[in-house]
What does this fold into?
Amino acid sequence: MRTLSKTILPLAAAMAVALLFGCSNMKSPATTDVAVTNAAVESAVGAGGTQFAPVEMNAARTKLALARQALAARDYALAISLADQSRADAKLAQAKADSSKARAAADLLEEDIQILRQEINRNKP
Amino acid sequence: MKKFSLTLSALAVVLLSAACTSTPTASLLDRAREDYRAVSNSPMAATYAPLETQQAGDALALANGAAQRYESQAQIDQLAYVAQQKIALTREVINRRSAEAEIARAGQQRDQLLLEQRTTEADQSKLKAQMARNDATDAQRSTEAAQAATADARRSTLAAQSEAARAKQGTQAANADAANAQRMAQEAQERSTRLETQLSALAAKKTAHGMVITLSDVLFGTDLSRLSAQGMRSVQKLATLLQDNPQRTVLVEGFTDSTGSEAHNLGLSERRADTVRDALLSMGVAQSRVATHGYGEALPVAANDTAANRQLNRRVEIVLSDDMGAITPR
It folds into this structure.
Protein backbone atom coordinates (compact mmCIF):
# COMPACT_ATOMS: atom_id res chain seq x y z
CA MET A 1 0.00 0.00 0.00
CA ARG A 2 2.80 2.25 0.91
CA THR A 3 4.73 1.35 -2.18
CA LEU A 4 1.56 1.70 -4.21
CA SER A 5 0.84 4.98 -2.66
CA LYS A 6 4.50 5.85 -3.09
CA THR A 7 4.34 5.01 -6.75
CA ILE A 8 0.79 6.23 -7.46
CA LEU A 9 0.92 9.57 -5.68
CA PRO A 10 3.71 11.13 -7.69
CA LEU A 11 2.16 9.70 -10.85
CA ALA A 12 -1.26 11.02 -9.91
CA ALA A 13 0.29 14.36 -9.05
CA ALA A 14 2.15 14.44 -12.38
CA MET A 15 -1.03 13.50 -14.22
CA ALA A 16 -2.98 16.12 -12.35
CA VAL A 17 -0.35 18.78 -13.14
CA ALA A 18 -0.32 17.72 -16.76
CA LEU A 19 -4.13 17.80 -16.84
CA LEU A 20 -4.38 21.10 -15.09
CA PHE A 21 -1.59 23.07 -16.76
CA GLY A 22 -0.96 21.19 -19.92
CA CYS A 23 2.50 20.29 -21.10
CA SER A 24 5.67 21.86 -19.87
CA ASN A 25 6.43 23.01 -23.46
CA MET A 26 4.01 25.92 -22.81
CA LYS A 27 6.91 27.68 -21.10
CA SER A 28 8.04 29.60 -24.15
CA PRO A 29 4.59 30.92 -25.25
CA ALA A 30 3.75 31.82 -21.65
CA THR A 31 7.01 33.76 -21.31
CA THR A 32 6.33 35.55 -24.57
CA ASP A 33 2.74 36.25 -23.47
CA VAL A 34 3.85 37.78 -20.20
CA ALA A 35 6.48 39.87 -21.98
CA VAL A 36 3.95 41.14 -24.52
CA THR A 37 1.53 41.89 -21.70
CA ASN A 38 4.25 43.77 -19.83
CA ALA A 39 4.82 45.93 -22.91
CA ALA A 40 1.08 46.53 -23.26
CA VAL A 41 0.82 47.61 -19.60
CA GLU A 42 3.79 49.96 -19.96
CA SER A 43 2.28 51.42 -23.12
CA ALA A 44 -1.04 51.95 -21.35
CA VAL A 45 0.73 53.71 -18.47
CA GLY A 46 2.57 55.89 -21.00
CA ALA A 47 -0.76 56.77 -22.65
CA GLY A 48 -2.12 57.98 -19.29
CA GLY A 49 -4.10 54.87 -18.38
CA THR A 50 -3.51 55.49 -14.67
CA GLN A 51 -5.17 58.88 -14.99
CA PHE A 52 -7.99 58.09 -17.45
CA ALA A 53 -8.79 54.43 -16.54
CA PRO A 54 -7.56 53.73 -12.98
CA VAL A 55 -9.77 50.62 -12.46
CA GLU A 56 -8.60 48.85 -15.65
CA MET A 57 -5.03 49.94 -15.08
CA ASN A 58 -5.02 48.55 -11.56
CA ALA A 59 -6.54 45.24 -12.71
CA ALA A 60 -3.96 44.97 -15.49
CA ARG A 61 -1.08 45.60 -13.09
CA THR A 62 -2.38 43.08 -10.50
CA LYS A 63 -2.94 40.38 -13.11
CA LEU A 64 0.45 41.00 -14.67
CA ALA A 65 2.08 40.52 -11.26
CA LEU A 66 0.12 37.28 -10.74
CA ALA A 67 1.04 36.11 -14.24
CA ARG A 68 4.73 36.70 -13.46
CA GLN A 69 4.34 34.69 -10.26
CA ALA A 70 2.58 31.89 -12.20
CA LEU A 71 5.39 31.97 -14.76
CA ALA A 72 7.99 31.77 -11.99
CA ALA A 73 6.01 28.88 -10.49
CA ARG A 74 5.99 27.30 -13.96
CA ASP A 75 2.20 27.40 -14.02
CA TYR A 76 2.28 28.36 -17.66
CA ALA A 77 -1.42 27.93 -18.42
CA LEU A 78 -2.34 30.23 -15.53
CA ALA A 79 0.39 32.62 -16.55
CA ILE A 80 -1.04 32.78 -20.10
CA SER A 81 -4.59 33.18 -18.82
CA LEU A 82 -3.61 35.97 -16.39
CA ALA A 83 -1.45 37.62 -19.03
CA ASP A 84 -4.34 37.52 -21.54
CA GLN A 85 -6.67 39.16 -19.03
CA SER A 86 -4.08 41.69 -17.99
CA ARG A 87 -3.39 42.57 -21.61
CA ALA A 88 -7.11 42.98 -22.29
CA ASP A 89 -7.34 45.30 -19.27
CA ALA A 90 -4.23 47.26 -20.31
CA LYS A 91 -5.45 47.69 -23.87
CA LEU A 92 -8.83 48.83 -22.65
CA ALA A 93 -7.13 51.31 -20.30
CA GLN A 94 -5.05 52.68 -23.17
CA ALA A 95 -8.11 52.90 -25.44
CA LYS A 96 -9.99 54.76 -22.70
CA ALA A 97 -7.09 57.17 -22.24
CA ASP A 98 -6.86 57.73 -26.00
CA SER A 99 -10.57 58.23 -26.46
CA SER A 100 -10.75 60.56 -23.43
CA LYS A 101 -7.93 62.67 -24.86
CA ALA A 102 -9.53 62.72 -28.31
CA ARG A 103 -12.85 63.69 -26.76
CA ALA A 104 -11.19 66.48 -24.75
CA ALA A 105 -9.46 67.75 -27.89
CA ALA A 106 -12.72 67.65 -29.86
CA ASP A 107 -14.53 69.52 -27.09
CA LEU A 108 -11.77 72.12 -26.89
CA LEU A 109 -11.90 72.64 -30.63
CA GLU A 110 -15.69 72.89 -30.53
CA GLU A 111 -15.32 75.56 -27.88
CA ASP A 112 -12.78 77.39 -30.03
CA ILE A 113 -15.17 77.33 -32.94
CA GLN A 114 -17.96 78.65 -30.77
CA ILE A 115 -15.79 81.58 -29.68
CA LEU A 116 -14.67 82.22 -33.24
CA ARG A 117 -18.26 82.20 -34.44
CA GLN A 118 -19.29 84.69 -31.77
CA GLU A 119 -16.40 86.92 -32.73
CA ILE A 120 -17.39 86.82 -36.40
CA ASN A 121 -20.99 87.60 -35.58
CA ARG A 122 -19.85 90.55 -33.47
CA ASN A 123 -17.66 91.85 -36.29
CA LYS A 124 -20.37 91.52 -38.94
CA PRO A 125 -21.72 94.76 -40.00
CA MET B 1 2.40 21.84 -2.94
CA LYS B 2 3.41 25.51 -3.18
CA LYS B 3 2.66 25.48 -6.87
CA PHE B 4 -0.76 24.05 -6.31
CA SER B 5 -1.70 26.66 -3.70
CA LEU B 6 -0.49 29.39 -6.04
CA THR B 7 -2.67 27.97 -8.78
CA LEU B 8 -5.62 27.93 -6.43
CA SER B 9 -5.08 31.51 -5.31
CA ALA B 10 -4.70 32.68 -8.92
CA LEU B 11 -7.92 31.00 -9.84
CA ALA B 12 -9.55 32.63 -6.85
CA VAL B 13 -8.41 36.08 -8.08
CA VAL B 14 -9.79 35.41 -11.53
CA LEU B 15 -13.07 34.17 -10.18
CA LEU B 16 -13.26 37.04 -7.71
CA SER B 17 -12.73 39.67 -10.37
CA ALA B 18 -15.25 37.92 -12.60
CA ALA B 19 -17.67 37.77 -9.72
CA CYS B 20 -17.18 41.50 -9.07
CA THR B 21 -18.31 42.46 -12.58
CA SER B 22 -21.17 40.01 -12.67
CA THR B 23 -22.77 38.24 -9.76
CA PRO B 24 -24.10 35.11 -11.46
CA THR B 25 -21.03 33.65 -13.12
CA ALA B 26 -23.10 31.89 -15.76
CA SER B 27 -24.30 35.20 -17.13
CA LEU B 28 -20.78 36.61 -17.68
CA LEU B 29 -20.72 34.98 -21.11
CA ASP B 30 -24.37 35.93 -21.69
CA ARG B 31 -23.55 39.57 -20.96
CA ALA B 32 -20.53 39.40 -23.22
CA ARG B 33 -22.75 38.05 -26.03
CA GLU B 34 -25.32 40.76 -25.43
CA ASP B 35 -22.72 43.52 -25.39
CA TYR B 36 -21.11 42.21 -28.53
CA ARG B 37 -24.45 42.12 -30.33
CA ALA B 38 -25.11 45.75 -29.36
CA VAL B 39 -21.66 46.93 -30.48
CA SER B 40 -21.44 44.92 -33.70
CA ASN B 41 -24.93 46.03 -34.74
CA SER B 42 -24.09 49.71 -34.44
CA PRO B 43 -23.04 51.21 -37.81
CA MET B 44 -20.25 53.06 -36.02
CA ALA B 45 -18.42 49.77 -35.41
CA ALA B 46 -18.07 48.99 -39.10
CA THR B 47 -16.99 52.56 -39.83
CA TYR B 48 -14.59 53.30 -36.98
CA ALA B 49 -13.48 49.97 -35.49
CA PRO B 50 -13.88 47.05 -37.91
CA LEU B 51 -10.66 45.38 -36.77
CA GLU B 52 -11.43 45.73 -33.05
CA THR B 53 -14.96 44.43 -33.61
CA GLN B 54 -13.46 41.44 -35.38
CA GLN B 55 -11.04 40.81 -32.55
CA ALA B 56 -13.83 41.08 -29.94
CA GLY B 57 -15.85 38.64 -32.03
CA ASP B 58 -12.93 36.24 -32.12
CA ALA B 59 -12.51 36.48 -28.32
CA LEU B 60 -16.23 35.86 -27.85
CA ALA B 61 -16.01 32.85 -30.19
CA LEU B 62 -13.27 31.41 -28.02
CA ALA B 63 -15.47 31.79 -24.91
CA ASN B 64 -18.44 30.30 -26.78
CA GLY B 65 -16.30 27.38 -27.90
CA ALA B 66 -15.15 26.74 -24.30
CA ALA B 67 -18.79 26.78 -23.19
CA GLN B 68 -19.80 24.33 -25.95
CA ARG B 69 -16.99 22.00 -24.96
CA TYR B 70 -18.24 22.19 -21.38
CA GLU B 71 -14.91 23.39 -20.15
CA SER B 72 -14.55 24.57 -16.58
CA GLN B 73 -16.58 27.59 -15.55
CA ALA B 74 -13.32 29.35 -14.62
CA GLN B 75 -12.02 28.85 -18.15
CA ILE B 76 -15.27 30.03 -19.73
CA ASP B 77 -15.45 33.04 -17.41
CA GLN B 78 -11.85 33.93 -18.09
CA LEU B 79 -12.41 33.85 -21.86
CA ALA B 80 -15.73 35.73 -21.48
CA TYR B 81 -13.93 38.37 -19.40
CA VAL B 82 -11.30 38.87 -22.10
CA ALA B 83 -14.05 39.05 -24.73
CA GLN B 84 -15.91 41.62 -22.71
CA GLN B 85 -12.79 43.76 -22.22
CA LYS B 86 -12.25 43.63 -25.98
CA ILE B 87 -15.84 44.69 -26.59
CA ALA B 88 -15.30 47.59 -24.20
CA LEU B 89 -12.09 48.37 -26.08
CA THR B 90 -14.06 48.39 -29.34
CA ARG B 91 -16.42 50.95 -27.79
CA GLU B 92 -13.50 53.09 -26.71
CA VAL B 93 -11.93 52.91 -30.15
CA ILE B 94 -15.25 53.94 -31.69
CA ASN B 95 -15.41 56.83 -29.26
CA ARG B 96 -11.85 57.88 -30.05
CA ARG B 97 -12.21 57.66 -33.81
CA SER B 98 -15.51 59.52 -33.83
CA ALA B 99 -13.91 62.20 -31.67
CA GLU B 100 -11.02 62.32 -34.13
CA ALA B 101 -13.48 62.60 -37.01
CA GLU B 102 -15.16 65.40 -35.11
CA ILE B 103 -11.78 67.08 -34.72
CA ALA B 104 -11.17 66.79 -38.45
CA ARG B 105 -14.61 68.26 -39.18
CA ALA B 106 -14.13 70.97 -36.59
CA GLY B 107 -10.78 71.80 -38.12
CA GLN B 108 -12.40 72.27 -41.50
CA GLN B 109 -15.16 74.27 -39.87
CA ARG B 110 -12.63 76.47 -38.12
CA ASP B 111 -10.76 77.03 -41.37
CA GLN B 112 -14.06 77.89 -43.00
CA LEU B 113 -14.87 80.31 -40.20
CA LEU B 114 -11.45 81.91 -40.37
CA LEU B 115 -11.91 82.32 -44.10
CA GLU B 116 -15.33 83.79 -43.46
CA GLN B 117 -13.87 86.16 -40.90
CA ARG B 118 -11.21 87.27 -43.33
CA THR B 119 -13.84 87.67 -46.04
CA THR B 120 -15.92 89.75 -43.66
CA GLU B 121 -12.92 91.87 -42.81
CA ALA B 122 -12.07 92.22 -46.47
CA ASP B 123 -15.68 93.11 -47.24
CA GLN B 124 -15.64 95.68 -44.49
CA SER B 125 -12.45 97.28 -45.73
CA LYS B 126 -13.81 97.11 -49.26
CA LEU B 127 -16.98 98.81 -48.03
CA LYS B 128 -14.91 101.45 -46.30
CA ALA B 129 -12.86 101.95 -49.44
CA GLN B 130 -16.05 102.23 -51.48
CA MET B 131 -17.44 104.77 -49.05
CA ALA B 132 -14.23 106.74 -49.20
CA ARG B 133 -14.38 106.58 -52.97
CA ASN B 134 -17.98 107.75 -52.92
CA ASP B 135 -17.00 110.64 -50.68
CA ALA B 136 -14.21 111.53 -53.06
CA THR B 137 -16.60 111.38 -56.02
CA ASP B 138 -19.09 113.57 -54.17
CA ALA B 139 -16.37 116.04 -53.34
CA GLN B 140 -15.25 116.09 -56.94
CA ARG B 141 -18.83 116.57 -58.07
CA SER B 142 -19.19 119.46 -55.64
CA THR B 143 -15.96 120.96 -56.95
CA GLU B 144 -17.17 120.59 -60.51
CA ALA B 145 -20.49 122.15 -59.60
CA ALA B 146 -18.67 125.01 -57.93
CA GLN B 147 -16.44 125.41 -60.97
CA ALA B 148 -19.47 125.37 -63.25
CA ALA B 149 -21.10 127.98 -61.06
CA THR B 150 -17.95 130.09 -61.23
CA ALA B 151 -17.86 129.68 -65.00
CA ASP B 152 -21.52 130.68 -65.18
CA ALA B 153 -20.86 133.69 -63.04
CA ARG B 154 -17.90 134.64 -65.22
CA ARG B 155 -20.05 134.17 -68.32
CA SER B 156 -22.76 136.31 -66.77
CA THR B 157 -20.21 138.97 -65.94
CA LEU B 158 -18.89 138.89 -69.50
CA ALA B 159 -22.43 139.05 -70.85
CA ALA B 160 -23.17 141.96 -68.55
CA GLN B 161 -19.96 143.65 -69.63
CA SER B 162 -20.72 143.20 -73.30
CA GLU B 163 -24.27 144.34 -72.61
CA ALA B 164 -22.84 147.41 -70.91
CA ALA B 165 -20.47 147.92 -73.82
CA ARG B 166 -23.39 147.61 -76.24
CA ALA B 167 -25.41 149.99 -74.13
CA LYS B 168 -22.50 152.42 -74.14
CA GLN B 169 -22.23 152.06 -77.90
CA GLY B 170 -25.97 152.58 -78.09
CA THR B 171 -25.64 155.67 -75.95
CA GLN B 172 -22.78 156.92 -78.08
CA ALA B 173 -24.79 156.20 -81.21
CA ALA B 174 -27.75 157.91 -79.68
CA ASN B 175 -25.53 160.82 -78.72
CA ALA B 176 -24.16 160.90 -82.24
CA ASP B 177 -27.70 160.69 -83.61
CA ALA B 178 -28.75 163.47 -81.32
CA ALA B 179 -25.76 165.50 -82.42
CA ASN B 180 -26.59 164.78 -86.03
CA ALA B 181 -30.20 165.66 -85.47
CA GLN B 182 -29.14 168.85 -83.75
CA ARG B 183 -26.77 169.67 -86.55
CA MET B 184 -29.45 168.94 -89.11
CA ALA B 185 -31.92 170.98 -87.17
CA GLN B 186 -29.39 173.78 -87.06
CA GLU B 187 -28.79 173.45 -90.75
CA ALA B 188 -32.50 173.40 -91.43
CA GLN B 189 -32.84 176.46 -89.24
CA GLU B 190 -30.03 178.19 -91.07
CA ARG B 191 -31.49 177.22 -94.39
CA SER B 192 -34.94 178.47 -93.56
CA THR B 193 -33.50 181.70 -92.19
CA ARG B 194 -31.54 182.17 -95.36
CA LEU B 195 -34.55 181.24 -97.47
CA GLU B 196 -36.63 183.84 -95.72
CA THR B 197 -33.95 186.45 -96.36
CA GLN B 198 -33.74 185.46 -100.00
CA LEU B 199 -37.53 185.45 -100.34
CA SER B 200 -37.84 188.85 -98.79
CA ALA B 201 -35.12 190.08 -101.15
CA LEU B 202 -37.25 188.82 -104.01
CA ALA B 203 -40.36 190.41 -102.51
CA ALA B 204 -42.07 187.08 -102.29
CA LYS B 205 -45.70 186.99 -101.24
CA LYS B 206 -47.45 184.23 -99.47
CA THR B 207 -50.52 183.17 -101.40
CA ALA B 208 -53.03 180.31 -101.35
CA HIS B 209 -50.84 178.21 -103.61
CA GLY B 210 -47.52 178.95 -101.94
CA MET B 211 -44.86 181.63 -102.06
CA VAL B 212 -45.18 183.68 -105.24
CA ILE B 213 -42.46 185.92 -106.66
CA THR B 214 -43.72 188.44 -109.20
CA LEU B 215 -41.43 189.69 -111.93
CA SER B 216 -43.08 192.93 -113.18
CA ASP B 217 -43.41 194.23 -116.73
CA VAL B 218 -40.59 196.68 -116.24
CA LEU B 219 -38.15 193.80 -116.20
CA PHE B 220 -39.19 192.95 -119.77
CA GLY B 221 -39.13 195.23 -122.74
CA THR B 222 -42.66 196.11 -123.92
CA ASP B 223 -44.08 193.35 -126.01
CA LEU B 224 -40.69 191.74 -125.70
CA SER B 225 -39.81 188.47 -124.15
CA ARG B 226 -36.29 189.49 -123.22
CA LEU B 227 -35.22 190.17 -119.67
CA SER B 228 -33.71 193.49 -118.71
CA ALA B 229 -30.52 193.66 -116.63
CA GLN B 230 -32.54 194.18 -113.47
CA GLY B 231 -34.78 191.24 -114.42
CA MET B 232 -31.68 189.07 -114.81
CA ARG B 233 -30.52 190.06 -111.32
CA SER B 234 -33.86 188.99 -109.87
CA VAL B 235 -33.70 185.69 -111.76
CA GLN B 236 -30.12 185.20 -110.46
CA LYS B 237 -31.37 185.55 -106.89
CA LEU B 238 -34.03 182.94 -107.61
CA ALA B 239 -31.44 180.58 -109.12
CA THR B 240 -29.30 180.91 -105.98
CA LEU B 241 -32.36 180.17 -103.82
CA LEU B 242 -33.14 177.06 -105.85
CA GLN B 243 -29.55 175.86 -105.56
CA ASP B 244 -29.65 176.34 -101.79
CA ASN B 245 -32.94 174.40 -101.55
CA PRO B 246 -32.53 171.51 -103.99
CA GLN B 247 -35.83 169.90 -103.02
CA ARG B 248 -37.90 172.84 -104.15
CA THR B 249 -39.23 173.31 -107.69
CA VAL B 250 -40.81 176.26 -109.45
CA LEU B 251 -43.74 176.88 -111.73
CA VAL B 252 -43.22 179.91 -114.02
CA GLU B 253 -46.56 181.52 -115.06
CA GLY B 254 -46.85 184.22 -117.75
CA PHE B 255 -49.66 186.86 -117.82
CA THR B 256 -50.53 189.83 -120.17
CA ASP B 257 -53.00 192.75 -120.33
CA SER B 258 -55.99 192.71 -122.62
CA THR B 259 -54.38 194.85 -125.33
CA GLY B 260 -54.07 192.94 -128.62
CA SER B 261 -55.58 189.65 -129.72
CA GLU B 262 -56.15 186.89 -127.27
CA ALA B 263 -53.97 184.46 -129.20
CA HIS B 264 -51.15 186.95 -129.34
CA ASN B 265 -51.37 187.57 -125.65
CA LEU B 266 -51.33 183.83 -124.86
CA GLY B 267 -48.24 183.36 -127.00
CA LEU B 268 -46.59 186.35 -125.39
CA SER B 269 -47.29 185.06 -121.89
CA GLU B 270 -45.82 181.69 -122.82
CA ARG B 271 -42.73 183.24 -124.32
CA ARG B 272 -42.10 185.37 -121.25
CA ALA B 273 -42.45 182.35 -118.97
CA ASP B 274 -40.07 180.44 -121.23
CA THR B 275 -37.62 183.34 -121.10
CA VAL B 276 -37.49 183.15 -117.33
CA ARG B 277 -37.13 179.40 -117.49
CA ASP B 278 -34.28 179.59 -119.99
CA ALA B 279 -32.54 182.14 -117.78
CA LEU B 280 -32.83 179.77 -114.82
CA LEU B 281 -31.53 176.84 -116.87
CA SER B 282 -28.60 178.96 -118.01
CA MET B 283 -27.81 179.58 -114.38
CA GLY B 284 -27.47 175.84 -113.62
CA VAL B 285 -31.00 174.93 -112.46
CA ALA B 286 -32.12 171.50 -113.66
CA GLN B 287 -34.80 171.48 -116.35
CA SER B 288 -36.94 169.03 -114.33
CA ARG B 289 -37.32 171.60 -111.55
CA VAL B 290 -38.79 174.30 -113.74
CA ALA B 291 -42.30 174.10 -115.25
CA THR B 292 -43.94 176.87 -117.32
CA HIS B 293 -47.48 177.91 -118.14
CA GLY B 294 -48.90 180.83 -120.25
CA TYR B 295 -52.25 182.28 -119.19
CA GLY B 296 -52.48 185.14 -121.74
CA GLU B 297 -54.81 187.93 -120.60
CA ALA B 298 -56.61 185.67 -118.09
CA LEU B 299 -56.34 186.15 -114.31
CA PRO B 300 -55.58 189.87 -114.24
CA VAL B 301 -54.52 191.38 -110.91
CA ALA B 302 -56.08 194.79 -111.86
CA ALA B 303 -58.68 196.28 -114.29
CA ASN B 304 -57.27 196.94 -117.74
CA ASP B 305 -58.69 200.54 -117.74
CA THR B 306 -55.58 202.57 -117.02
CA ALA B 307 -51.98 202.28 -118.28
CA ALA B 308 -50.72 201.71 -114.71
CA ASN B 309 -53.20 198.94 -114.10
CA ARG B 310 -52.43 197.28 -117.44
CA GLN B 311 -48.75 197.35 -116.47
CA LEU B 312 -49.61 195.47 -113.26
CA ASN B 313 -51.32 192.80 -115.31
CA ARG B 314 -48.29 192.32 -117.56
CA ARG B 315 -46.21 190.13 -115.30
CA VAL B 316 -44.50 186.73 -114.67
CA GLU B 317 -45.33 184.95 -111.42
CA ILE B 318 -42.98 182.32 -110.11
CA VAL B 319 -44.67 179.89 -107.71
CA LEU B 320 -42.25 178.23 -105.29
CA SER B 321 -43.02 174.68 -104.22
CA ASP B 322 -42.97 173.45 -100.64
CA ASP B 323 -40.08 171.43 -99.17
CA MET B 324 -41.33 168.28 -100.91
CA GLY B 325 -41.32 169.90 -104.39
CA ALA B 326 -45.16 169.98 -104.53
CA ILE B 327 -47.07 173.01 -105.85
CA THR B 328 -50.66 173.61 -104.85
CA PRO B 329 -52.56 173.85 -108.14
CA ARG B 330 -54.26 177.08 -108.88
In short: Chain B is about 70% helix and 10% strand. The helical segments of chain B are 2-21, 27-41, 43-48, 50-68, 73-201, 229-244, 262-282, 307-313. Chain B touches chain A at residues 2-3, 6-7, 10-11, 13-14, 17, 59, 75, 78, 81-82, 85-86, 88-89, 92-93, 95-97, 99-100, 102-103, 106-107, 109-110, 113-114, 116-117, 120-121, 123-124, 127 (CB under 8 Å). The mean pLDDT of chain B is 84.
